[in-house]
Design a protein that fits this description.
heterodimer; A: about 800 residues; alpha+beta; twelve-stranded mixed beta sheet; six-stranded mixed beta barrel; 23 helices; globular; B: about 260 residues; alpha/beta; six-stranded mixed beta sheet; four-stranded antiparallel beta sheet; 10 strands
Chain lengths: ~800, ~260
């Protein structure tokens, strides 16, 4: 074995070109796969600072076996689960949200808050041991207890100037005078991103189950459990599901088909991780397959050169298994070194990803997620390198070891028979199919993401300062008449103050429940006038509320009709401005002005709301990130004066994002209500960039994947195709001997290449198109992509055939006849 | 079979092959190697010529030039009265297809094609020939070499002797003026070698002009005439009977040995 290793090492050094090319190819594929594994483990491995973190489980409701969202467990269900899950040592409810914290010397600000029961702190161990003061205790949750809070050390330093007298001081939290009783370590963001903790109290009001399935209501909570020593999550899930089945029988309206899942802590609030990883893993697997093809071809060519050596070894008594092992050792060595290189480059790529994500996460990334190389990913790399070595090297090794001793030793020829030819053609087909699939998929993905990132919103984006305001004080919360009236008054006063502030800065004011280019998407079912609806299937429309003069402020020229104005009051005709898509989808070829539609309210029992008259038509504005129906969305805009929202996006148009502008904005809000806190204060462009979040990263990855694929496809197609031609050197010599001229031979070779292309290319293109069909808004980019990839691959194949064929035809027929 | 090949050159004195002062040099690493040096030779239509000599004497180079696979560095080559040494590649290919058949030591059958397709290969470069005519010629050639029953088999399924018979069929199917055989028995066992030589003799007997490179004096003795090369030069050109005095007995002896095997 040592001799074999030594000989292999020397052989690699003697053929540095082959070794380097194989190494480069392998490290591309392995590097990407290791990177994908690194991303997965960064999400799921979770450097949780708690004692025995594997015993902490997040309990989520499921519907028909599928996960719902984080706040999915009804409080009454939780009480039942607490009683009936013996594998859990404890099961505790939590609530999360955003709270407005009034500072001592600065404007209020919003922070992520968690309402937690006192029993949870021992589960968190030293990570939750207070630096100052105390943690929350059971008495703090009692009805009538004085409001208290615990804050994180980062918040204390950042927002409160690390005030040494913080413990015992009082701050307004959501307008409520609250005593700060403790400061927890800065690294803690329990349960996910929170740095402010309040005592948990059961949901207010009478606890009732709904008449239909629901989630995310004030009566739904997060649930955290702790397994007993030796118990498993599967056990807990089974027990929870038994309870859920009993609840379904007792309360079919709300609990039918509802189950429960016990998930690892790190899965909390991360529903899309598996989808992200599947996408990455899929791309990584395809790239690795392409790499394996390329490397297998290189190894096949190499093994061809070693036939004489292998024949001599076999003649001297080496068993076949030993010959195979000798060939495999070379592949393993290359794969191991490539994996090491892959780990190195992946570590760098993960660090770059961490920086990119951190810049756009805006505090939304759970605290345990840090993109970095982990031992698990390196182990995956090691495992993959062994698998790749087998996948890449086993077949060439097996074929090379099956040498016709007599033929090779007599005259150096090995009889390239039908099997060799078929195999070579199969390699060419596979290479073409895989390359075109990956090129099309990565190219389209890059295009799609680039389009989204660079798509204009339809409104002015530069020189626009934006912010978000969600009044969280008690007087503004809820659906009571008093709360609605309070909100109406708030928005009126706010609009007046902000308009004054904007005017003083020479700017314009725009208010919207969701500003273009990155805000939330809010959709409602609608009934356009004249439409007949089947089985309660109403179309959806994006619902956004704006102030009068919004479109003018955002420099959007209406296509027809008018903006909202002072005549659009709460007691006047209900009006709306619709976008072009809405008009085209529901009233094609008609004048939409004067048409009416209604919003459909309710879930189980749907009812048609009052008719709303269209008074204006706007060009399409990009609401959200464009990912969700994006450019095809049918949106409608309602005046704030008639539909007061619960939260508001603010845009000062015509001011830079600097301290002065931010101060102007904050002062206007503070003058309206000193307890209000602005959040997400960014320029419009920054806001859009943050909203796209990981898409920047995805775009970069797609581009890298595309470039890697292009390089691998080019070298791979050239490698397999030219090798297929070289294998036919002898045949070319024979054909020339019987009278074929160069033109006839070239036509034959190119024709055969085109036939293989015709077989493999459509398969690859179909695969690539299917992979991204759902992402594309129209068929145009797909058509262009298919054409571009088809032309590129065809060009590559023809060039890769023509060049070696030209070389073979330059060879004298005698030399060709003697080659094999 | 080219009807002209049956006509000896009594009435028409133009030899099938005329080489005058043929030279072939190879340049490698700035070193010139002269494979053929002033070789002059004539071969009449219907003649069976053996080319012998030690390894590296230029036999295969001579055959390559005769077969228009290679061009001489100097000298003149006439084939059937036409000067061919200065033809371009396309014209040489056309002539090879129409007038020359090859039999190689290593058979050189194409592994991907079956026997029938291998034999049909020269005809596939004659677009004027119809498919039925092509099939008929292939069948005739295979019958000549007694391989019609293996038409659908692939070379890997045949023995060495069978492969060489197929190669001979391929050489015959185009009805060439000239058949060039380069060590046709070199890769065969004695029995199959004997059978192949019998086949070649029968081909010659039917009027083909045959030039055969061989090491083996038993097989050289079967030719009418032998030319010997040494260091690229033609050093002997004699009737075989003169070169191998016991050639008839040698031929008979070789057959007896083959029969005993």
């Amino acid at each position: 074995m040592l001799d074999d290793l030594r000989h292999t090492w020397q052989a690699l050094l003697r053929h540095p070109g082959h070794a380097l090319l194989s190494l480069l190819t392998l490290s591309c594929g392995l590097g990407f796969a290791i990177y994908a594994a690194g991303v997965y483990f960064s999400f799921t491995a979770g450097d949780l600072p708690f004692p025995e973190p594997e015993r902490l489980v997040a309990i989520e409701a499921s519907r028909d076996g599928e996960r719902s969202q984080a706040k999915s467990v009804h409080y009454l269900d939780l009480l039942e689960y607490q009683r009936q899950t013996p594998s859990l040592e404890g099961l505790l409810p939590l609530q999360t949200g955003i709270a407005t914290l009034g500072g001592h010397k600065q404007y209020p600000a919003n922070f992520q808050v968690a309402h937690v029961p006192a029993e949870i702190w021992p589960w968190l161990g030293a990570a939750a041991r207070p630096q100052l003061g105390r943690a929350l205790q059971a008495s703090d949750s009692q009805p009538g207890a004085a409001p208290v809070a615990v804050i994180g050390a980062e918040l204390w330093r950042r927002f409160l100037g690390a005030d040494p007298s913080i413990v015992g001081s009082r701050l307004k939290i959501n307008g409520v005078d609250t005593e700060i009783v403790g400061v927890l370590p800065g690294a803690l963001r329990f349960p996910m991103t929170q740095e402010l903790w309040l005592p948990f109290r059961p949901p207010a009001g009478p606890l009732t189950r709904g008449q239909s399935y629901s989630m995310g209501t004030p009566q739904h909570v997060l649930a955290l459990g702790r397994l007993k020593p030796g118990a498993s999550r599967e056990q807990a899930t089974n027990e929870l599901n038994l309870s859920a089945q009993r609840l379904a029988q007792d309360f079919p309206a709300s609990n039918r088909r509802v189950g429960a899942l016990a998930l690892p802590y790190a899965a909390w609030g991360m529903p899309d991780v598996e989808m992200i990883y599947l996408g990455l893993a899929g791309a990584g697997a395809l790239l690795l397959a392409l790499v394996c093809l390329n490397t297998a071809n290189l190894l096949l060519a190499r093994s061809n050169e070693r036939r004489q050596e292998l024949a001599v070894r076999a003649a001297l008594g080496a068993p076949r298994g030993r010959l195979v092992m000798q060939m495999l050792i070379e592949t393993w060595l290359l794969c191991l070194v490539a994996a090491a290189l892959g780990v190195f480059f992946s570590a760098w790529a993960l660090e770059a990803t961490q920086q990119a994500v951190a810049a756009t996460a805006d505090g939304r990334m759970p605290f345990w997620i840090h993109f970095a190389m982990r031992p698990q990913a390196a182990l995956v790399g090691l495992g993959l390198s062994l698998l790749t070595a087998l996948a890449t090297g086993l077949l060439p090794a097996w074929r090379a070891s099956a040498v016709d001793l007599t033929a090779v030793l007599r005259d150096g020829r090995g009889g390239q028979g039908r099997a060799s030819g078929r195999f070579a053609r199969a390699l060419v087909c596979l290479q073409i199919a895989l390359s075109s699939l990956l090129l099309l998929a990565s190219g389209l993905q890059t295009y799609v993401v680039h389009q989204r990132l660079t798509a204009g919103t339809g409104a002015r984006m530069e020189g626009v300062l934006t912010a978000r305001l969600t009044p969280r004080q008690a007087e503004y919360s809820g659906n009571s008449d008093a709360a609605r009236a309070a909100r109406d008054g708030l928005w009126n006063r706010l609009e007046a103050r902000l308009a004054e502030a904007a005017a003083s800065a020479g700017a314009r004011l725009a208010l919207s429940t969701s500003l273009p280019g990155g805000g939330m998407i809010d959709t409602d079912e609608i009934l356009p006038e004249g439409m007949t609806v089947q089985e309660n299937h109403y179309p959806l429309g994006g619902n956004y509320r704006i102030n009068a003069g919004f479109f003018q402020a955002m420099e959007v020229k209406l296509l027809a009709g008018r903006e909202f104005g002072p005549q659009d009051r709460v007691d006047s005709l209900k009006v709306a401005v619709i976008n072009q898509n809405f008009a085209q989808q529901h009233w094609p070829g008609q004048d939409p002005l004067g048409k009416r539609f209604a919003i459909v309210e309710g879930e189980a029992q749907k009812r048609i709301g009052p008719w709303i008259t269209v008074v204006g038509v706007t060009p399409h504005l990009l609401q959200g990130t464009g990912r969700e129906r994006g450019l095809r969305a049918a949106n409608f805009y309602l005046p704030i004066s008639q539909h007061a929202p619960g939260e508001m996006g603010i845009a000062l148009v015509g001011v830079p994002d600097n301290t002065a502008s931010r101060e102007l904005l904050a002062r206007a809000v503070a003058q309206t209500d000193p307890g209000l806190a602005l959040e997400q204060v960014f320029s419009a462009e920054e806001r859009q960039r943050i909203a796209h979040g990981g898409e920047d990263v995805m775009a970069a990855m797609s581009l890298i994947l595309g470039l890697l694929t292009l390089g691998l496809a080019s070298s791979g197609i050239y490698g397999v195709t030219s090798r297929a031609v070289q294998l036919r050197s002898q045949e070319i010599g024979v054909r020339r001997a019987v009278g074929a001229n160069d033109a006839q031979l070239m036509r034959m070779l190119l024709g055969q290449a085109l036939r293989l292309l015709a077989l493999a290319l459509p398969l690859g293109l179909l695969g690539g198109a299917l992979a991204l069909a759902g992402e594309l808004g129209s068929s145009l980019p797909l058509g262009l992509g298919v054409t571009a990839v088809a032309l590129l691959i065809t060009g590559l194949v023809l060039f890769s055939t023509w060049l070696p064929a030209r070389r073979a035809l330059r060879q004298s027929p005698t030399a060709a006849l003697n080659s094999a | 079979m080219n009807p002209n090949s049956k006509q000896h050159s009594q009435a028409v004195e133009v030899p099938l092959i005329r080489l005058q002062g043929i030279q072939k040099s190879f340049l490698s690493d700035e070193l010139e190697t002269r494979a053929l040096d002033e070789v002059s030779l004539e071969v009449r239509s219907g003649e069976f010529l053996a080319v012998s000599g030690p390894s590296g004497c230029g036999k295969s180079s001579l055959l390559s030039i005769l077969g228009l696979l290679d061009s001489p560095s100097a000298g003149r080559y006439e084939l059937n009265g036409q000067r061919v040494d200065q033809l371009d590649k396309r014209a040489r290919a056309l002539l090879r297809n129409r007038q020359i058949g090859f039999v190689f030591q290593a058979f050189n059958l194409i592994g991907d094609l079956n026997v029938e397709d291998n034999v049909a290969l020269p005809l596939s470069y004659r677009p004027e020939m119809s498919r039925p005519e092509r099939r008929a010629r292939v069948a005739e050639a295979l019958a000549q070499v007694d391989m019609a029953h293996r038409a659908r088999h692939h070379p890997a399924q045949l023995s060495g002797g069978q492969q060489q018979r197929v190669a001979i069929a391929r050489a015959l199917v185009g009805q060439p003026s000239l058949i060039l055989a380069d060590e046709p028995t070199g890769n065969l066992d004695p029995r199959n070698a004997e059978l192949v030589m019998e086949l070649l003799q029968s081909v010659h007997a039917r009027g083909a002009t045959l030039c055969m490179v061989t090491h083996d004096p038993r097989y050289a003795a079967l030719a009418q005439r032998t030319v010997a090369l040494f260091d690229g030069r033609l050093v002997a050109d004699l009737p075989t009977a003169a070169l191998y005095p016991g050639s008839a007995k040698a031929a008979a002896g070789a057959s007896a040995v083959a029969e005993a095997l």
